Amino acid sequence: MTRLILLLLVASALVFAGAQILAAIRGGSRRRSALPATQEDAMPAPFRTIAYLVLLALMAGTATGLLGAG
After folding, report:
1. Phi and psi at residue 43, in whole multiples of 5°?
2. Longest CA span, the chain
3. CB-based burial label for 38 (10 Å; 0-12, 13-18, 19+)
4. What global pTM score does this model have?
5. How far apart are CA 49 and CA 36, in angstroms?
6. With 0-12 CB in 10 A as exposed, 13-18 as middle and 19+ as buried, what is 33?
7. 3-state secondary structure string across the chain
8. Over the stretch 2-46, which tens digit does the pLDDT of each residue have?
9. I need a labelling partner for 39 at 20 to 30 A (CA). Which of 6, 56, 67, 69 fits?
């Protein structure tokens, strides 16, 4: 089960890296004309993404019984 979770984490990291590369290629000119960040958007996007992935890993580990009481 741990191998499966590790495989899913590595696969999600690869998908995330590919999406970031594509976004960087496509959005070079769009970023200059984008609206300024609001107060709600104070946390940088990479930190939000990492926090979201860690939350998903924690939820998956708890749901499968690998983490938590027991």
Report:
1. -80, 130
2. 52
3. exposed
4. 0.41
5. 20
6. exposed
7. CHHHHHHHHHHHHHHHHHHHHHHHHHCCCCCCCCCCCCHHHCCCHHHHHHHHHHHHHHHHHHHHCCCCCC
8. 888 888 888 888 888 888 888 878 776 555 555 665 666 677 888
9. 56
Give the Cα separation of 55 and 11 in Å (integer): 16
Structure tokens at 40: 């709600």
Instruction: Kindly state the average pLDDT of the residues 50-70.
Output: 81
Question: Are 63 and 7 contacting, i.e. CB atoms less than 8 angstroms apart?
Answer: no
Question: How far apart (Å, rounded) are the C-alpha atoms in residues 67 and 54?
Answer: 13
67, 4 Cβ separation under 8 angstroms:
no
| Residue partners of 49: CB distance under 8 A and separation at least 6 | 16
Averaged pLDDT, 49-70: 81
